[in-house]
Amino acid sequence: MLTILVKMELIDAIKGRRSIRQYKTDPVPKTIIEDILEAGNWAPSAKNGHQWRFTVLTGKAKDDYNLMFRDHLNNFIQKHGRKETGSAPWTLEIMEEAPVVVIVWNTNENGWITEEHSVAAAVQNICLRAYDLGLGSLWIGDVFYAYEETRKYFDKDWKLSGAITLGYPGTEGKIPKKKTLSEVAEFLE
Ligand SMILES: Cc1cc2nc3c(=O)[nH]c(=O)nc-3n(C[C@H](O)[C@H](O)[C@H](O)COP(=O)(O)O)c2cc1C
Q1: Which of 21, 107, 134, 146 has the most CB atoms less than 10 A away?
Q2: pTM
Q3: Which residue puts its alpha carbon closest to atom 13 of ligand 1?
């Protein structure tokens, strides 16, 4: 069998990666998940502190966490109304569909803002490597609706930084309108 490896240009990965909100049910082999997280572990980090930590959820562990999140959101909606939960119920549906949910932590050893930046760099590496390997990903902030509950659930005293869904994409994902460079950059001479 002839295998032709086509190398993806970095810029194509940066521009081609999309937030994927529909997944196939096919499981993702553990070696692939490890490969993707390894890319995260190679991110730059403040004082080379590797402040990221990952809790990888699949199968029953993922279902159990999502159930806790769903229960918490339902209670929250009863108290504060549906509007107050923003996109969280919808994001949770995506987490229920995706075969892999990665909970992302920030060890926050020094309380530096830059520690959060390290973790964000790792998440972006993860999303890019997932795309490189033909997987979809979604960077999730909506787990903040269950911030303390998530820390308690996993018995962590790290900061919760977010979550990522991973899986084989069930859609290409829509290209959102991006700001032009002139809207976000100024050049001073
Ligand atoms: C910090 C952060 C948090 C996000 N949280 C969510 C989320 O909770 N739910 C969701 O559907 N998308 C979430 N997104 C995805 C953004 O909506 C998405 O990146 C943006 O619309 C641009 O689309 P693109 O990723 O396809 O370029 C998040 C992205 C970032 C960077």
Answers
A1: 146
A2: 0.96
A3: 140
